[in-house]
Structure formats: structure tokens, C-alpha cells
Specification:
Immunoglobulin-like; 3-stranded antiparallel β-sheet; alpha+beta; single chain; 128 residues; 19% helix; 2 helices
Amino acid sequence: MRAWILVLTMLLTGCSSITAGVAARSDRPELRIDSSSVAREVTIERVQKRYVGDRLQASAVLASRVSTDRYLQYKFTFYDIDGIPLEPETMSWRPINLHGGEQRPVTAVAPLPTATEFEIYVRRATDE
């Protein structure tokens, strides 16, 4: 029984560490840091929004803070005026490889015209 608890604990710890990262919202100036080690490697800058037709377009710049390649994933989540996520299952994690010191813009368009804000979240693609 103890062995199963140990295995389960190890699996849960492994799963939780890969999902931790950094996030930025279009309606808040501060960066949310869920993993200080990821925050030392990458930051999110120039978080902006604009409308393309009737859809909100999100943009941000992912910037490497290290001299080596970082294999990451990012995901946009859009919110309506009440702060409710809009069709979160339609927005999947996207892979990105940032070279040392590189800054790369990323964009996404809201799935529905009722989006008013967004969040971008960045995490490691693998548990390093």
C-alpha cells in the first residue's frame, strides 16, 4: 500500500511541475508567477489587445532570459465581460522554441465576438 501511495505522489508531483509557469492578463499589469524557475527563464512582455472585425486579437512577446534554448508551450484563454472563460477547450497548448535571448511575438484571435479580455500562460514543454 505504501508503495502505491509513493508512486501516486511521484506522479502527481511530476504532473504538477510541468503545468506551472507564468501568466499575463490583458486587464492586469502584473505578471503572475506560478513557477519561479520558469520565470527566471522566460517572461511575457508587451501584452496587447485589439479588435480585428468583431473579434478580439491577443498579442504578447515571449522573451528568453537565458542563453540556451528553451522548449516551451503557451496557451491563450479568452474571457467575456463577466470574466467567464470562452470555449476553453478550443484553445490548446502550442509549442514554441525560444533560442537564448530571443524575443518572439505570439498572437491569437478569440473564438467568439463576446471576448473582452485574455490571458496568456507559458510553461515548459518538458519537465527539465
